[in-house]
Amino acid sequence: MLPKPYPDELIYSVIARHFAYLQPIVIKSAQEAIDGISWFSTRYVRNANRLAEKTHPIWGLSGLEILDRHTLLPFNGAFLKPDMHLKCTECFLETNPHGGSVALGMGNSSVLEPKFFRFCVLCLEEDIERFGETYWHRQHQLSGTLFCIKHGELLRNSMAPMSPLDRATMDATHYCESDAEPVAVLSSRETTLALEIAKRSADILYGVPSRWLSPDPSEQYQTAAVEVGYGFGITALQTPAFGADLIDYFGAGLLGKLGCRLNERSRPIRKIFYKDGANHPLLHVLVQHFLGERQKATRLILERQGLDNSFRQEWKCPNRFAKHEEDFRIPQVYLRRAKGGTREHYFHARCTCGYVFCFERPREGDPAMPLVKIVNNYGPAVATEVKRLYAKYRVIKKVCSELKMQHKTVRRILDGIRAGFEPSPEKIAALRKAWLEDGRVKRGTTYQTLLKYDREWLDSFPSRRGTRSRVPKPQPRHADDVALAGQIEASARTLREQGRLVTVNGLSRVLGRKLNVLGLKLMPNAADTLRKEIDVPSRALDRVRKHIARGRGAGGPARRVLKEHY
After folding, report:
1. What is the pLDDT of residues 515-538, one digit of tens each?
2. Where in 47-179 does DSSP place strands (E)?
3. pTM value surpassing 0.70
């Protein structure tokens, strides 16, 4: 009888402990002695229901409890769809472990699995003092985990490979040495990040609730990515920029030590935002930590609860000349990324009073009032104040001093001239029309100008992920239909006079346009004329005769035409 599993022990470790004192130690013979099956996994279990029946007098566990408490299925299957997770569970409960491992994506090339079993020195000492032996802990074997979360100790590699070629049972007590080298050498920042990754991975393994833990967190990732400045329009995302910042945040060195092979354009980074995308849990851990830290950095004050149980900032308008109510807040505030590869973030605000500006942080003493960095447009309220002060002083320099504005800006407002870089309303209207007629293509000068000066209007169009909108084709008129039917009939008569067979290709050459029965579905007269005029070769008629003689139907467009001639 197998010994009772220790807390958080792999099933493989239980069998390895059982056969540590028996001969032979080859896992093929060991597993056959238990269940009559030669195959066994170090991470999962085969035929968990049968194992539960045999061990129930001592273990008291069902097959599902064995999978949940003593395999890595809760970690690797945490982000699978419910139906796929159920399929994996059924595979491991029965005798089809290969189907379960394939569905889990164990062949993901972006994440390397540990080569050796890992252990914690302090856990080793505690286990020997408490049980007289040690065992393989599940939390220590998770991909990308470098720390024991119980002691905060860096893990060490044992001498036991995770996938032994000879399928031998390797007991932890005999293969763990306290003087073994740590799995990696980390800097202080890498240590902080690796410890946080280990804690998040353990939470996933043990099912600790979090706002990210769901079968399909892609929508949450998209919302968070747009919030921290990676949005493009409403739903499109700048995934290359996101991937570059993700790699820069963790560092290529730490990612290599975790076993991740990523670059800014890696497919797993794009798939993480897909609704049907499947990725390794370690990638989910990295994305969740990165987005969470970016959200903390960009949410300056917690004022208003958002849709995802988080909070958003509400900002006052800094335009002191606009007659806003005391509780008024700016309706349009966007988070944007600075150009030039600096990867810094700032806020862009557009108030209903016409005041458009950029800022990075609030003023001291009033956390809801933004500290204006750049003003893009002052609006009519400021223009009225400029004119009032100029009427009072008749000196532009005095007006500039009062309002802290540039001389050329005040002069332009007084002359009623728009900024040279700012297109007029007529120009904006013309650009909108041109962009719509061009099929809403997201490139070119027209789109870039609208993106800069009329972004809100562009954002009102939902993204279609690369599909192009085309101007609807005009419907053919009845007169055109009748005219084309007459042309087809005349062309067919010409071909017969020349002694040629009337075919669709022959008529197309004579008319100078491509003809197709299905393509003429909006022109019924022309389509009927085409069907009547085309000639069918005698050998084709012979094939149809034989086909019908065998008792078979003559369905389909082509066969219907042949049936008419038959």
Report:
1. 776 567 677 888 888 878 877 555
2. 116-119, 147-148, 153-154, 156-161
3. no
